[in-house]
Amino acid sequence: MRTTTIAPTHSGRDEVNEIVEAMSAELDQLARVLTDMIHEKIAELDDDIYVWTLQSVRANLGLIVTLLREGTAPSSAQAPPEALAYAKEYVRRALPFELLGRAYRIGQASLSRYWLERLHARTDDPDDLVDTFGFLSDWLFAWVETLEHQLTEFYMREREQWVRGAAAVRAAEVRALLEGARVDVHETSKRLAYNLDRHHVAFVIWSDEADRDAGDGAAVRFGEMERLAVRVAASLGAHAPLIVPQGHHLACWTGFHEPPVLADPPLAEDEDEGAGLRVALGAASPGLDGFCISHREALQARRVAKLDSRGDAPCTAFADVALDVLTTQDAGEALRFVARELGPLAAGDEAARRLTATLRAFLDEGSSFVRASRLLGVHENTVAYRVHRAEELLGHRVAERQLELRVALRLAQLLGPEAIAPPA
């Protein structure tokens, strides 16, 4: 920390005393001038916080007058209660500390100009001017550094408590809602800062890496998840999502006055940001019940996405996997169903995979050998041969149990061959 090392000359001391007395007589007026300057230069500070700024500036000026009058070193200064209250108000309004630092620097520059004007009016001697103003500038610099250090620690402590407290309140409110508690929708909406009387789209954000590493060193990456949540909400046409940590994932909601048309949300703006994060969305649903239903759907979509053996799709919508949700509720029964229906085709070797892929294409294309051949890029006779070979292994014609066959093929693709063993 920079400290004052040179005291003013005797005449300079007199000039400092005169400035201090002038400040004391003009304290309220000077405080308003500095406050106006701060609000003029920092657009993020609105009229609602003006009184807080004024009270902090007034208290700080009073402290400066007292310390200079007593000849006390600026490094011994203690931030006045009004300055601490002002910093706390920044926390409450979610204003970054950088703005508070700017406010002090603007006040420092304005007060320096005030002192220089008073010194010019007091003396024409350039040596006296340089000596006295140099002392005052060094003193004020050290004073601002001292207070800024104290305010930084205070702001960080308050912000941590505020964030934890707000997150805890949101988590408790949301947990009660999801557990079916009867609540006053209007009052709960106010506490959550989220309107519950709308159409809701819930989504969850997670990282498979974090899910696998459940120890203290888990790379939960909540900061990246929160930024992604804001982008997802924006891509859906909403703003200010409700975000609540749940274990290693984030539970999020966005609200709409009309049922939204959902689009796939973006997961990253560049190659690094959001890499490895995944999203699962529920369908839009209205009101308090819809808040809970869409969240349950998002969790179910996440469950299916984590089951899917075909990779790590970045976004999974419940509407796209609703049938998968139903057919995988009992994972053990689903595996047994696949094994019973597919028999040797569930083996998972290269030949079985080739036959099941052909069957899926054949059924998806309306049992057309020609269209299936185009989709697969092989001759239609090859498709016909594979279908007939699959029927031999199944023990029946494809048309005989087509619904069961289609569901079994879908489950086999979803769960992966390594999870399925054909019956002995």
UniProtKB/TrEMBL annotation:
This is PucR family transcriptional regulator. It comes from the Bacteria. It comes from Capillimicrobium parvum. It holds the Pfam family HTH_30. Residues 183-304 form the CdaR GGDEF-like domain. InterPro entries: CdaR-like_regulators, CdaR_GGDEF, PucR_C-HTH_dom, PucR_C-HTH_sf, RsbRD_N_dom. Residues 29-170 form the RsbT co-antagonist protein RsbRD N-terminal domain. Belongs to the CdaR family.
